[in-house]
Fold each of these.
Amino acid sequence: MSKPEASSEANSEAKPEPGAKPKSTPKPQSGDNRRGAIAGLIIAILILGVGWWLARDLTSASKMQDCLMSGRSNCNVIEPAH
């Protein structure tokens, strides 16, 4: 007879009383979520900018190296006068 008593005690602890408020998790502030999203966006833009700059720099270095390896001596880029 001790088994039914133990199970009834466990059931009464699991169910909240009718007058008690149900426990709810506290909601995070919306400002914290936006701060994280904005920080992530800034970091993504920085990474894209650095990647773009690096790609252009490596492309120009590769073109210069290809020109020099072909035996040419006039590989410098000449900028037109404004």
Amino acid sequence: MANPSDEFRLTSSNIHISHEGRLPRQYTDEGQGAKRSISPPLEWYNLPQGTKSLALIVQDIDAAKDPTGPTVPFTNWVVVNIPPILKGLPEGFSGKEEEVGSDYAGIKEGNNDLKVPGWRVPKLPSHGHRLEFKLYALDDELHLGNKVTKEKVLEAIEGHVLGEAVFIAIC
């Protein structure tokens, strides 16, 4: 039986199980000033052998585009071509990949469902929504052109996923 500490996993130092996994307000549109809509720090462990790049998709899995309609996940963040030498993304990484340094140079942020690149958690009509953070370990880099979307990523990774790591935050 595999040791759970050896599993490919994704976590955030600012989203604690002891606080019911709540996403702090500074990571949403409900934050204030400079402490508003900044991407949370993420860390990952135990990448599958052969990982050449990572892709991250974050979505509100309780969203409804129409309040009377069905639940349709809202894409909050898409990040591709994360090099496997990295152990995480720092807080506030979104929109600053060039500033962070050379190890981050090839990373590309895709468009969220607001049709803009980067991290975005809009004001929610009600609290208790679940944000799913899903990190894919891939056997190759993705070549998706300038406009990267969740749909393009999911299509491109088919047959290239070595592992998935997921965690849920409540907002």
